[in-house]
Every structure is written in structure tokens, then in C-alpha cells.
Amino acid sequence: MLFRHWDAWRRNRAEEYLALSPEQRYRKHQWRQAAAVVTLPGVLLGTAGFAAAYGTGLFGKSQPSRTCTPQVVTAPSRHSFDLVVLNATGEPGVASSVGRELTRRDFKVVDTSNAPDDLYIRDAGVIYYGTKTLQDALTVRNQLPGARIFFDGRTTTTVSLVIGSGFTKLVDPPARETPRPSQIRVNVYNTTYREGLAKTVRGELVARGFKAGAMGNDPEKVYLPKDVALIRYGPDADLAAKRLAEHVAGARLVKVDRAGLTLDLVLGNRWTDLVPFADVPALPPLTKAPPETIAVPCAAATG
Predict the structure, then answer these.
(1) Class of the 181-279 domain?
(2) What is the pTM of this model?
(3) What is the mean pLDDT of the chain?
(4) Predicted pLDDT at 299
(5) Which of 50, 92, 117, 223 has a CA-to-CA distance to 169 between 20 and 30 Å?
């Protein structure tokens, strides 16, 4: 009889907890933590005595202050570890959008999804790391300064970023440089009746430093009776498309859903030739960005 009453009580408590909002669950969790801090000295006093409680540093004993300067080191490669992005904001799509942007910034994002429903984070985010990934976590925090890092004991090379309700945006990235031809792959497609045109134009572009992509008839079978050419590009390749357009006077730029710096140059019926190479704007001198750095704390921070 007593067991049945106890089992029913536990089921009722579980149902009540699941009915709480994430913020209510967070408040309940915080209250329990506070209660543990308040009651722990009393438990110690009733068992091991006042001296044991004093020895733990719970009260009455001041700790010596320590000062040290975090060590500034070169950050690890953003692509050298796996990054999981979880959404604890309650707003749909946040993990996906942040994950896409971090991928554009060369992080290796392996998963984006929602955090557990009972995980409530008021900060901009919490970055969970393990025994091998402190510096990786600090590299992620460079993109989200309001986030905390938290050691959870994991032994893998994975870092988890949980985005909290305090999130607004990632830090602004540095100004992008227009890619050089050697960084841009160009597929050349022919929609005209002039045989071999795609092969000829691709060869000319390769001679100007572009990477050779596919060639032949346009796989999308567009008809361009009044166009010189189309340049199709994805969200990551807007500046690459502008670089190619310097060589193709009158080309129409068309944005498509595609990753990377690969472009399609689709030749239309009004195609004549590339812009004379002498008339193409000269490439600016190469600039080398300084290496990314992180400030490693004196002891691994645990949030």
C-alpha cells in the first residue's frame, strides 16, 4: 500500500515538472542549488562537526587571493575540432542560422539541433568542453564574447555551443577580401549554337588564373536570346561573382542555393568575348591577416 502511494506521488511530481515552462524549470533548479548550499553546513555540523565545515571553506575561512595573467596563445585551427550547435532560446531556427554562419567562418559544424526542453540558459550561450578542448572552446567564444565556457569532463574532440536566451548575434566578422582568380572555380556552359564555345572560354579563363570547372551545355537548359551571359553564384560567392564579372562585360548575376566559391558562367546569344585582359582591374596586393589568438586562463574555467 505504501509503495503504491509513493509511486503515485512520484508520477504526479513528474507530470507537474513536465508542465512547467523552461524558465520555471530553471528557477526550480536554481532554488534547489541554493537550498543545497544553505543546508550543507548544517549537515556537516551534525556529522563531522564545526571543524569539518570550517575546513571545507563553506564559512569563516578566507581564501588567499591569487592574481595571474591569462596566457595569450595562437588559437587552434577552426577546422581542427567538431562543433555542435544547440538552440536553447525557444526561437525556431537559431541553431541552423548560427551553424551556417560559423561554417562560413571555417568552423567544422557537425550538428545543429534543439537543446533539451528543460535546459534554460539566460546567458548568450554556454560552451561545453572537455579534457582536450579548452583552447577550442575559447576559439568558439571569440565569436560569442557573452558566452561562458563550462568543463563537463568529455574526452572527445567535440565542443558544444548551447545558445541561450541572451543571444543577439555573433561578433562581426572582419571585412572580406574579394577572392583572387586562383580561389575561384568556374563552370562554363554554352546555350548558343556555336560549337566548342564553352571549351574555348574556359581555356581563356584558366589562362587568366581561374580554376577549371565543368564545361558543356547548360544543365539547367536556360535560353538566353538577349543576354551576353549569366553568372550563377551561391551565398558564399558574391564577391567571387563580382571578380569574374570584371572579365565578362554585361553579364547578369543570379544568386542560387549553393555553397563554396564555384561559379557558373552561362554564355548567351549575345556573347562576343572576354574583356581584354589589359582592361581588367589589377589585383590588389596580397594581405596577410594576423593569426587568431585566445587568452588561456590560469586554470580551466568551469563557468
Answers:
(1) alpha beta
(2) 0.59
(3) 82
(4) 67
(5) 117
Fold of 71-174: Alpha-Beta Plaits (3.30.70)
Q: Does 56 score more than 50 pLDDT?
A: no
Are 125 and 140 in contact, with CB atoms under 8 Å apart? no
Distance CA 252, CA 52 (A): 78
Residue with cell 556529522: 47
The per-residue pLDDT for 50 is: 31
Angle formed at CA 15 by CA 13 and CA 19, multiple of 5 degrees: 115
Q: What's the pLDDT score for residue 3?
A: 42
Q: Which of 187, 191, 248, 255 lies closest to 225, judged by CA?
A: 191
Which of the two residues, 48 and 294, has the higher pLDDT score?
294
For residue 295 the three cell numbers come to 587568452
The dihedral of CA 258, 260, 266, 271: what is its sign? Answer: positive
DSSP letters spanning the chain: -HHHHHHHHHHHHHHHHHTS-HHHHHHHHHHHHHHHHHHHHHHHHHHT-HHHHHHTTSSS-PPPP----PEEEEPPPTTSSEEEEEE-SSSTTHHHHHHHHHHHTT-EEEEEEEPPTT----SSEEEEE-TT-HHHHHHHHTT-TT-EEEE----SSEEEEEE-TT---PPPPPPPPPPPGGG-EEEEEE-SS-TTHHHHHHHHHHHTTPEEEEEEE-TT----TT-SEEEEE-GGGHHHHHHHHTTSTTPEEEE-S--SSEEEEEE-TT---PPPGGGSPPPPPP--PPPPEEEE-SS----
Tell me whether domains 71-174 and 181-279 share a fold: yes
